[in-house]
Amino acid sequence: MTNQTQLSTFNFEQSSIRVIAVNNEPWFVAKDVCDTLGIKNPTQALENLDEDERAMFNIGLDQRVNFDNRVSEINIVSESGMYTLILRCRDAVKKGSVPHRFRKWVTAEVLPQIRKTGSYTKSTTDERTGLRQAVSALVSKKGLLYSDAYTLIHQRFNIEHIDELTPEQVGMAVEYVHKIYLEGELIIDEPKKEDEQLLRLLVSAYHFCYEAHELREKIVKTYIGWDIDRHFSPHYLHNLGIPLEQFLEKTRDFIHSNSERIMFVKGMNHLLEEPKQTARF
């Protein structure tokens, strides 16, 4: 495997985990993962992975300093392969165990950072100067609080702070604020009844998926180790594990943000319609 790569090193407790981004997809150095999980026979563990879950990585001259100089290739595992190695550990679902802590750490810290830095470029403070000026003008004209004005931008671009905007989005945000300034209303459609009905259906689907995830956890606890492969398809159990966990997390955030958005849009439109009354408070 010799495509475009970027090496990052992350620290998990006392262990260093080297992650290689190959075409923006994370691949983990197999030795680091196996050592951390306490896998006694790494060779067999890797052989039992699917072919698309493992690969050999050619170490370039510029990266030799990060590896053993005596080798030119190393074993790496994909994100799916890494999760499979964790799943096959005896204590994989036991809270507080090393495999459990490692899985939570990878999911919460490593993967989000790789995906964010690999394909996301933040704007600079200077690039956001025009946006801050536009917000100040809007606050002055409409009698809004600065926090409310910036929340308009956060809601519009689904961010928590304006420093998350890309340079391209900064220009779009300035235009958006100017339109509110000139037209006096949010450039967001009033929530429709269909939107609220869809949100309720999504909430129901979320609970069904959550129950499926709980069922999978019970199955894993009942059938330990290689028994899982004999009784159930690893593919299905994998999809009901980490991928479903990530889906549930994203769905929960989507439900929360859209619920807040519906209430926010209704409230902010009211504030923008009565700026003088708002200013007195």
Automatic annotation (TrEMBL):
Domain Bro-N: residue ranges: 4-118
Protein name (Swiss-Prot/TrEMBL): Putative antirepressor protein
InterPro entries referenced in this protein's UniProt entry, alphabetically: BRO_N_domain
Pfam families xrefs: Bro-N (PF02498)
Species assigned in the record: Glaesserella parasuis serovar 5 (strain SH0165) (Haemophilus parasuis)
Residue intervals passing through the bilayer: none
PROSITE patterns: BRO_N (PS51750)
Residues annotated as signal peptide: none
